[in-house]
Amino acid sequence: MNHSNTPHHRPGSEPSGGAPSSATDCAGSPRGGFTSTRFVLVEPSHPGNVGAAARALKTMGFSRLVLVSPRVAHVQSDPEAIAMASGADDVLASVHVVPTLADALTGVHWSIALTARLREYGPPQLAPRAAAMEACRHAANGDIALVFGNERTGLSNEDVERCSALAHIPANPAYSSLNLAQAVQVLCYELRMAYLGESGLEAPAPADTGGPRASSDEIERMFVHLENALIALAFLDPANPKKLMSRLRRLFARSGLEREEVNIVRGIAKHILLKARGTEK
Question: Which string of b and e fits 248-257 if b means at least 16 CB within 10 Å?
């Protein structure tokens, strides 16, 4: 089961339409979760899947679809995509296309990767309903994203490790091949139920971190800085890194980093590098 599938605005500037005016998210903010949630398809291959994903979003009140390096250029105007969108032409037309997952997650402070297989390393794993409830907590504080991989290969380990959490749809183990757009529909439904408070579970309180949450791009810069510091200490051998950075990513993903905490880690890394270079004053 490879959960994924493909164009133009900046993430965060897409039109907000879709949710009924009476919709209220789990934090009590009108339409908050519906407008702060991005659905990201990484390298989708089939225009039909992109159109069907747009339809899945619109039926559940969402509108923000981001495509990372789709295989078909200008997929939003592809006849097959338009046909499969089946009336969700507005969502398809407002698709935002970016070259990398890092670009798709710019400004996002929490993200979840959808994967067909269990990973030895990576962020904590959740079932779709639990993932939706967790998303509900974080959507009250800013943009979040659900990330789906390519139809054939799914998400790379690097893409998974860039996300805050991991979700897996527990399909029939004898036949677990879920189409990309179907996987998007499952998560759209669970998110809608969570945002409307109709999941059957007690809505969690909004995430209270005590400070602004770090965005995905801020966290990635922290990891680059930290990795360079560990190499300077000879604690990390770049020729044989093993799984050190993957384990550190998993550790930090569990903590839910605040911006100030990221700055502290980067400050530590900075002084390690200064000392290693003999320039610390």
Answer: bbbebbeebb
